[in-house]
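User: Second chain of the day. Same drill as before.
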Amino acid sequence: MNYRHSFHAGNFADLVKHALVLWLLERAQRSGPVAVVDTHAGAGLYDLTGDATRSREAEAGIARLIAAEGRPPLIEALAKAVAALNPEGGADLYPGSPLLVAQRLRATDGYVGFELNPPVLELLEQALQSFANASARGGNGYDQAVAEAGRTPGGLVLIDPPFEQPDDYLRAADTGAAIALADARTTVAIWTPLKDMETFDGFLRRLDKAGIKGALVAEARLRPLTNPMKMNGCAMVVLNPPAGAEAAAQEICGWVCDALGDTGARAEVWSS
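Assistant: Same format as last time:
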């Protein structure tokens, strides 16, 4: 499954991912300085009048969120971040994780985002150029994230690959497990699509075999998992989850499923 950030920007899966990332960052900042590592950063900022118009996923995602009333607090936090980029209304511009994080960095915090694709790296550098504590680096985040996370214990690591390569599930699990096991104070958030349960169960089994216990699994299933070529849902798997993560994930996934899902959509939040 090919998951290009620009093509799918602003869809329901981005809402789940980014709302939870904002909460995880805020929670980590309560404990002191935070170093954020992003293995597959993407461009940082997306024009939803570009690639995303072909998929029309943003219309069913962020556009509906912005128009919704009675948003719960953690969904409202994301809505405010998007609204700040679109002062005239709507959601033509959508922030990726790099920009969402960079905007909230304190003087003692830092962000490093890795991007392998040179043209996308250039866009990432542009998106982060006004943030002194945020940097973009070229390279494969899998190869560099473990060392980078080890430099500052107690950080937040985001693993969000495009799932273009057949080993992305394996490498995401192995990288996340290595970081989380090396430092129990570091929280690792891994995003995956939900296309079929066999693939996702295999991913969770690999984490378990690596020695990961007590991971938080937050699933948002917008439709039955009957077509493995279609993203019917998504999951955030959080290693070393902070206190309160289960309630936060339930609020986010529950709202997304209730507000944006088909009949029978459901959120499942549990510990592995």
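The first strand starts at residue 35 and ends at 38.

User: Great, on to the next one.
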